[in-house]
Specification:
Layout: H1 2-14, H2 25-35, H3 41-64
Helix pairs in contact: 1-2
Length: 65
């Protein structure tokens, strides 16, 4: 449960959202993810991973130029 709350706090920080208490966070997490266009937190983390991969490829291409 606390790992899930840590994920929630990270998501709120990255999306500039205020956190709520431990009892209400699951509903709030779903609400803010949908608000920002994600299905769930796994969709959000997949998006972050794809962004990171894209950024690495760009740096590699620019470094080769």
């Amino acid at each position: 449960m606390y790992d899930d709350y840590d994920d929630y706090e990270y998501i709120c920080k990255m999306l500039n959202e205020k956190t709520v208490g431990l009892r209400e966070f699951l509903d709030h997490e779903e609400e803010i993810l949908v608000k920002h266009g994600f299905k769930d937190k796994y969709d959000y983390f997949q998006y972050l991973n794809l962004q990171e991969e894209r950024d690495k490829k760009i740096v590699k291409i620019l470094g080769e130029s």
